[in-house]
Specification:
mainly alpha
């Protein structure tokens, strides 16, 4: 008897719990609340989607404007750098022209000096000068005088000068150095 009473009480409790749901509300009310929450969430998502769709063009335009401003700033910086480089290039060209004019004048004078020297004395002096300068001077002398000077020089120095002179006459040098 006690057992049947407990069984009936437990069955009734389970029926009430099922009917009223876990929160003591009727089961259909808790389902309605869940549906309202889902509907509310869907409405919020729809509003967010609509808002994002409405401002997408404005956001894209703003992003393009910012990118355009950044590109214009970069272009201005590049133009400033180009102007600075052009100014420096012009300055370097000016100094290079002055240097080349001086070298032409000095080289012409040097050739005349060595042309009037005795071969043994000229050979002795050219051995002390930079190899490239000595080769340039020897190249501008008449072949007979150049051969006499090279004959009076140390064999190694004469060989170095000869290879520099030969490489200056090489026509296989590319127009554009890499």
């Amino acid at each position: 008897m006690v057992r049947s009473f407990l069984t009936k009480t437990l069955a009734a409790s389970l029926a009430l719990a099922t009917a009223f749901g876990a929160w003591g509300l009727p089961l259909n009310l808790s389902l309605a609340a869940e549906k309202d929450a889902e509907t509310m969430q869907n409405e919020i998502s729809d509003e967010i989607r609509a808002f994002c769709t409405n401002i997408a063009d404005a956001a894209r335009d703003r992003r393009y404007l910012l990118q355009k401003q950044e590109l214009e700033q970069l272009q201005a910086d590049i133009e400033d750098r180009i102007a600075t480089l052009e100014k420096r290039r012009a300055e370097y060209e000016h100094w290079l022209n002055l240097r080349n004019e001086f070298l032409v004048k000095a080289e012409g004078g040097l050739v005349e000096i060595y042309k009037n020297m005795r071969a043994d004395s000229a050979a002795e002096k050219l051995e002390l000068v930079d190899v490239n300068v000595a080769a340039a001077i020897v190249m501008k002398l008449k072949p007979r005088l150049a051969s006499q000077i090279l004959n009076e020089m140390d064999a190694e120095t004469a060989a170095n000068l000869t290879s520099i002179i030969a490489s200056a006459a090489d026509t296989n040098i590319p127009d554009e150095p890499s």
